[in-house]
User: What shape does this take?
Amino acid sequence: MKNFILSALLFCAFTANANIIYDKSDVDEKDFIFDEHQCIEISQQVQKETQSRSIVGSAAKGAAVGAAGVAIAGGSGTQGAKTGAGIGVATGILGGSRDRKASQAKYEAEQELVVRNCMIKRGYSILN
Assistant: This one.
């Protein structure tokens, strides 16, 4: 059971801050694992952004721009609205995906920074 817990802690430590390189010379491995686990637990307090583009909002904006563009060109505003809405939906889906990826990357970077600062405060040397 003790080995299972130690393995689980090592797995969590590895996945949560795989980019941090420590100087482990003159460090007791048990203390290091304990401190790192505590710092990772603290990093779980980082809030994740949940805002992303609205597909409906993008479709509405696309419809308005499409209708205006076609009307200015002398065509049917309805057809322009349909085309603009389709483009708006596609933009909303692609933009939302991009926003979620950027939000996840920011979240992970903030968590890594918390772990890094926590470990530095506990006296560990970080090489990167």
About this structure: The chain has a mean pLDDT of 76. The chain has four helices and two strands.
